[in-house]
Design a protein that fits this description.
The chain is of the alpha+beta class. It folds into two domains: 3-131 and 238-271, Major capsid protein gp5 fold, CATH 3.30.2400; 143-236 and 274-283, 2-Layer Sandwich (hypothetical protein PF0899 fold). It contains seven helices and 14 strands. The protein has helices at residues 3-28, 31-35, 99-106, 112-131, 152-164, 179-187, 189-192, and strands spanning 49-55, 79-85, 88-96, 143-144, 173-177, 203-204, 207-208, 210-212, 215-219, 227-231, 236-240, 245-250, 259-271, 279-283. A six-stranded mixed beta sheet has the order 4-14-10-5-9-8. Helix 1 (3-28) packs across helix 4. The chain is globular.
Length: 285
């Protein structure tokens, strides 16, 4: 295969597959899709810093008609900023003996190779985001151990804890449950039956969320048995490059025959304002 043919394949992949790959990656991430944020600045390479903003609520006033209700004092618009370093790179790659093998894979309408690469990157990003789970352990404790079953009474207690922590209501509250905890919910008549108010709601990461006790519940099969993460979305801010990079290179400079296809994206994440109080981790020892 000539260098021209290699360049053509590379251009085709970056032009047609990169935007589709990026869109599918963003939509299929479960935790990542819920904490992914718009940001100020650009992520061109690893180590770039961008800014995520949160608008602060005004002070507000309570006035008395006939006394002081004819005038008011507006608050100055204020915004809190969080600078996040995009210091992580999620990578997935394949090696091919011949460029024809790669071309045949990409000529399919829905190539399995793209799905496989996307899955590998999802796992890297998802696993990293879970390493940032670090709830407050001061009273009241947001790190709850020894929960064997995700029952209605347990969800009710978690709802009380979130309410007492004053989680805002401008965005939905979520609960990501491992398959075992999720099965507990499905086996509980009060939680599962529509006769008790159970119903399905928005689609997130290919799933229909189940609203229960103020939480949108979703199954996350990436977690070990008896693991639950409950949160207000701004507990964590993730920033990601607008488009993934897909590259094809030959191995001749390494004195090898063959080609490498790699997909990578640079991203970063950090806790939001009071983020340790805006998420709850539940697990069984």
């Amino acid at each position: 295969m000539s260098q021209t043919e290699l360049a053509n394949v590379t251009n085709q992949i970056q032009k047609y597959w990169a935007p589709l790959f990026t869109e599918e990656l963003r939509s299929s991430l479960l935790l990542g899709s819920l904490v992914n944020r718009d940001y100020q600045g650009q992520i061109k390479k690893g180590g770039d810093t961008v800014r995520v903003s949160q608008v602060n609520a005004p002070t507000g006033q309570l006035l008395t008609v006939g006394t002081d209700a004819d005038a008011f004092s507006p608050s100055a618009m204020s915004t809190s900023y969080i600078d996040i370093v995009a210091d992580r790179r999620a990578v997935a790659s394949y090696e091919f003996e011949d460029l024809v093998d790669l071309q045949s894979q990409l000529s399919n309408e829905n190539p399995a190779i793209i799905s496989s690469l996307k899955y590998a990157m999802e796992k890297q990003i998802n696993d990293y985001l879970y390493t940032l789970v670090n709830p407050s352990t001061s009273s009241p404790d947001h790190l709850i151990n020894g929960i064997t079953d995700m029952s209605a009474s347990q969800l009710s207690a978690l709802r009380v804890l979130a309410g007492q922590a004053k989680w805002p209501h401008d965005k939905p509250w979520y609960g990501l449950l491992d398959p075992q905890y999720y099965a507990d919910v499905m086996d509980d008549t009060t939680l599962a039956s529509t006769e008790y108010g159970g119903s399905d709601a928005p689609m997130v990461g290919g799933q229909l969320a189940k609203p229960r006790f103020g939480f949108m519940l979703l199954e996350d099969n990436s977690r070990s048995a008896d693991y639950g993460l409950f949160f207000y979305p701004d507990w964590l801010h993730m920033v990601m490059q607008k488009e993934v990079t897909i590259k094809v290179s030959d191995l001749h400079s390494n004195k090898q025959f063959g080609y490498v296809l790699s997909v990578d994206v640079v991203f970063g994440a950090d806790l939001g304002i009071s983020g340790d109080e805006k998420h709850i981790k539940v697990y069984n020892t």
